[in-house]
Amino acid sequence: MRPSGRAPDQMRAITIEPNFTRHAEGSVLIGFGDTRVLVTASVEERLPPWLRGKGEGWVTAEYGMLPRATHTRGNREAAKGKQSGRTQEIQRLIGRSLRAVTDLKLLGERQITLDCDVIQADGGTRTASISGAWVALRMAIDGLINDGKLTADPIRHQVAAVSCGIYNGTPVLDLDYPEDSAADADANFVLLDNGTIAEAQATAEGACYDEEGLLRLLRLARIGCTDIFAAQKQAIGK
Amino acid sequence: MRPSGRAPDQMRAITIEPNFTRHAEGSVLIGFGDTRVLVTASVEERLPPWLRGKGEGWVTAEYGMLPRATHTRGNREAAKGKQSGRTQEIQRLIGRSLRAVTDLKLLGERQITLDCDVIQADGGTRTASISGAWVALRMAIDGLINDGKLTADPIRHQVAAVSCGIYNGTPVLDLDYPEDSAADADANFVLLDNGTIAEAQATAEGACYDEEGLLRLLRLARIGCTDIFAAQKQAIGK
Amino acid sequence: MRPSGRAPDQMRAITIEPNFTRHAEGSVLIGFGDTRVLVTASVEERLPPWLRGKGEGWVTAEYGMLPRATHTRGNREAAKGKQSGRTQEIQRLIGRSLRAVTDLKLLGERQITLDCDVIQADGGTRTASISGAWVALRMAIDGLINDGKLTADPIRHQVAAVSCGIYNGTPVLDLDYPEDSAADADANFVLLDNGTIAEAQATAEGACYDEEGLLRLLRLARIGCTDIFAAQKQAIGK
Amino acid sequence: MRPSGRAPDQMRAITIEPNFTRHAEGSVLIGFGDTRVLVTASVEERLPPWLRGKGEGWVTAEYGMLPRATHTRGNREAAKGKQSGRTQEIQRLIGRSLRAVTDLKLLGERQITLDCDVIQADGGTRTASISGAWVALRMAIDGLINDGKLTADPIRHQVAAVSCGIYNGTPVLDLDYPEDSAADADANFVLLDNGTIAEAQATAEGACYDEEGLLRLLRLARIGCTDIFAAQKQAIGK
Amino acid sequence: MRPSGRAPDQMRAITIEPNFTRHAEGSVLIGFGDTRVLVTASVEERLPPWLRGKGEGWVTAEYGMLPRATHTRGNREAAKGKQSGRTQEIQRLIGRSLRAVTDLKLLGERQITLDCDVIQADGGTRTASISGAWVALRMAIDGLINDGKLTADPIRHQVAAVSCGIYNGTPVLDLDYPEDSAADADANFVLLDNGTIAEAQATAEGACYDEEGLLRLLRLARIGCTDIFAAQKQAIGK
Amino acid sequence: MRPSGRAPDQMRAITIEPNFTRHAEGSVLIGFGDTRVLVTASVEERLPPWLRGKGEGWVTAEYGMLPRATHTRGNREAAKGKQSGRTQEIQRLIGRSLRAVTDLKLLGERQITLDCDVIQADGGTRTASISGAWVALRMAIDGLINDGKLTADPIRHQVAAVSCGIYNGTPVLDLDYPEDSAADADANFVLLDNGTIAEAQATAEGACYDEEGLLRLLRLARIGCTDIFAAQKQAIGK
């Protein structure tokens, strides 16, 4: 039995509240159960120097966790003066995932930054970030299209992400914190709406897993992402 | 005329949503109009080394602004590797303001950290932070009292803060961003519910002001804080 | 009684030694009693990138305290790798105060940096810094005028600053260290020679103060600044 | 055709030179073709404070790339003052991989640090690091056993890692730099000698991949790791 | 001819003003011509953790240059967030030089820090720092002896330092800035009052020098240090 | 007797293995006994901004020590976030030494960086670095000449360095670690093949030394450098 009483292939409630803040070109508050992440998409009409002059744009991400998003207060990274390895790993993953569905040439020489700030953490903050970032990016790009700055849509697919793991010997979907901290294996899958895989990461925390285990986790992820794709569509009104 | 159409002595709508997040011992989302700050109070039963052994506790604050809380995206301080002078100045002010109403001896050897994170900025983020932090602190201390960890209440007063300024020659209450960026003088007052002043800061941005101007700003602040004190009480159910 | 035996409205001896060092365009060693601050004004004929092209100049300040300016040795900020929040708060205040009396358009596209380094500390280092910085700035601008680089004088007023506080229940002028560390309230006023106020900051350290208290502190500050304005004039030979 | 002329399932030459340096408790220079990594294992008989008192030890890793290990010189991370996100991601992966085969309780309250420094880079530096780190760890633990400090062997398995990718539409084993920089997908697998998986990471760089693609990459990795396990055994004389 | 008109073996005026500041246990303002360095000695009755428990003390130094000590303003190291290589090199030299004349066992488990802050620079700041630091150290140790905290004098010798160089082909003593920036060789010698050498550093800036050149520089340094030893004695009233 | 049984004027075995890595324009692994340093020379056809436009090039050096190059593991400077004072002092010395034999005008507007990374340390790492750096520089410049990018050779001399010290009262050549940690004086000489001196540094660690001692150390250094010059020539095939 899962601590939450969920079935092994059951997602937590997915909530996506668009326009949670008003200044950003795209903004959502996404929830996977008690995990809540504020994602904003910021469009800048210029690129950092090392990306200029290639006739294409860039999509990047930054990730942060508010100090008391967690059960016990963590140190503020701005006060410590550096981002942890975990933070950097996550924001690199978010950026790659969104670039996997974006045609950077069609985007043109502009940068879109996806800021993912965890308001409340209960497992799955990086997968909620990716899933919410797609909505924020979609909103920002719709804005560029509406403003006539883009004529062709650079977004080729939906992208979503979900965590899976082996908990008490059973593969389960969408780990919450109690499961995450006790799982034998912890995986994150980033999937496209055409069924292909942008990123698969599966880490043994206790006993190592086998090929069959990896495939069962992937199949759970497909179930979860189907739900997320639907929630994303609803959030953007389609 | 003010850009928002408000009367000179009119506050923006004050909204205080308690328990906005669930892990912290106290938590509110406070709004002064479009300015929204998430404040959490975290109780730790130990002090940093330099504060130990004095038989008293500590109340401190940290402040941050999400990168896209503002009209244009600002750099993430965690990524830059340091907090700006402005950030440090604000978080020092918040900490002092809350300590002004707390009996640290009664608090005992524990630390309460008030994290103030600006979700959306439209002027007055530091005063909203202070005003919300009092509610979060109140909730955290009520928890300690309910748990039997405190027998006497260390909070001696309510504290609230509001900005005032001289805009187009007229003293006005609770500056929003368009006023703040054009005001001749910009003041922040931190007041107690007994009418005394914990902190007064009044800075000329354009023409310098005189004693009468300072007093008129203070009197506006009293009007605003009366509203905030009422909203604080309502938020804690009193 | 004050520890120094001074009357409540009595400044410490004000000493201003111009040309204390020889390389800077302006330089003074200012003393308020045992507090001694070396202030230099450095003129640079170029602006940092973010200030260029607006047809105006910039006046800024940096502040530092030699490690053994104080009773016990403090850490060297350069060795720690960052400036404290207190340092940043003070240098921002100094910069604002001097800009309050400078016409940046008349200054032209150049930058003047006021370096305030505390040689010996006995309370009031920030107010001595501001008061001395005006003299150093005056000297530097006189140099620009003499060299024909400026035809109109960009300095519109004298500016001076002094601390006041409530010590043992009595408002007193120009706190020294024993008073500063025991005062109930601690205020800094930055005043212009026309009687207007550039900055007022009054912080309760113990009991909070009331409007009457604030006004009495301001009136003491006027007395102190009158003395400082005279000493500034004498230092520049007027 | 692969640029190197290798068959799709062909590893580069694996070279493991034990005792490359003399101070460390374990030391190897491992080569996967032209990629060469110096790995040392350092035993410290004390743990960092946050790991003490749990009756178990710790295995961790640090990773670095000499500035001119690469085709063009990269900045020295020590001079820049921080480790890149890539570096941190890699060293976290190495540490997890080695802990996956170590019984930390049997290790006792000591720490073993695996320093992986890339002398020359031609793709696969993280997988060579993991594969070499196992040998260095084995040597260090053999030393502890020989010295009578350990009575039971805390190493439960061999662990090895190899990269695979989809290059020109074909899944290939052990990417070198020309392949790595042009591959559509880039995967790293960390495998145990009992056939289980400690870590799988597969990232689409161009077109996303499907389940069959993931499995084909995994099967290539099994082929490569079989070779590496043999080379590890030979290096430790078994 | 030297720019200053001095003879090749002629020191600039040496001025040592003891008790320049009042909080430190020892304090001097030392001048070599226009070079002026404020040196304070701070006694702390505890050692940093890594020096404790050896039954001996420590003498260390820190060095800084005020931003406008030089002809053009340099960046403030505290603002840049790190000390330059030059700064670190100099403060390590000062520390070694003073430890060369101090019996650390006799000093007991306490630390003396020599802060050398350059008020005005005209060449020779490191040698003036060492020469002044000896006087400050002497004063601090005399204080410890007078307070009965030391019964035996841990200072075994006087130590002084001076720069020499080859300027326009001629070996000259005590380089000022115009000479220093144009010299072919630049040397610093740290000498004891018994004629022995604590440190010799001679660097070719243009043409390399030979053994005879090195010896001639050393002989000039002996002449200069004789003058400095006399000035040190006079400063401490002997 | 020396711990190693060497005669006082006897160098350790000098080994220079050219082309140790393949990407750099010049590369050697140099050994002085058990000390082994990997030196690479990297040519960049552009200068950092502050060196541009003078019609000349730049030669600079960086130095690092792998964490377990030493008997006990040292902290990784990249992880600590700064280079130690010792590291900076050494890399400044290496850079100066190589510039002493290079005609920067003939080099043209390009930069050569010498990265010296200590693989294994047993005393003399900075002198081995300098001696190896000359070979790497020679190789890089030969490459520029062969490519027709240089027509005149900017290298004017060979440069080599060696340490000497007073160990148990006897001047000895080329200190290894046991000698280095116990010597009364520790000197490093950087010599040119024409017999002149680029840099002399002699530091008393215990008893101070006299002029005769300094000369005896210098003469030992000449013996050592003669051997190193021969090994350098052999390494470049002359």
UniProtKB/TrEMBL annotation, chains A, B, C, D, E, F:
Gene Ontology molecular function: tRNA nucleotidyltransferase activity
This protein's record includes keyword Lipid metabolism: no
Keywords for this protein: Nucleotidyltransferase, RNA-binding, rRNA processing, Transferase, tRNA processing, tRNA-binding
Residues of the Exoribonuclease phosphorolytic domain: 10-140, 157-222
Record's catalysed reaction(s): tRNA(n+1) + phosphate = tRNA(n) + a ribonucleoside 5'-diphosphate
Enzyme Commission number(s) of this protein: 2.7.7.56
Binding, phosphate: 86, 124-126
SUPFAM superfamilies for this protein: Ribonuclease PH domain 2-like (SSF55666), Ribosomal protein S5 domain 2-like (SSF54211)
Subunit description: Homohexameric ring arranged as a trimer of dimers.
Protein function: Phosphorolytic 3'-5' exoribonuclease that plays an important role in tRNA 3'-end maturation. Removes nucleotide residues following the 3'-CCA terminus of tRNAs; can also add nucleotides to the ends of RNA molecules by using nucleoside diphosphates as substrates, but this may not be physiologically important. Probably plays a role in initiation of 16S rRNA degradation (leading to ribosome degradation) during starvation.
Family: Belongs to the RNase PH family.
Record's protein name: Ribonuclease PH
Lineage: Bacteria, Pseudomonadati, Pseudomonadota, Alphaproteobacteria, Sphingomonadales
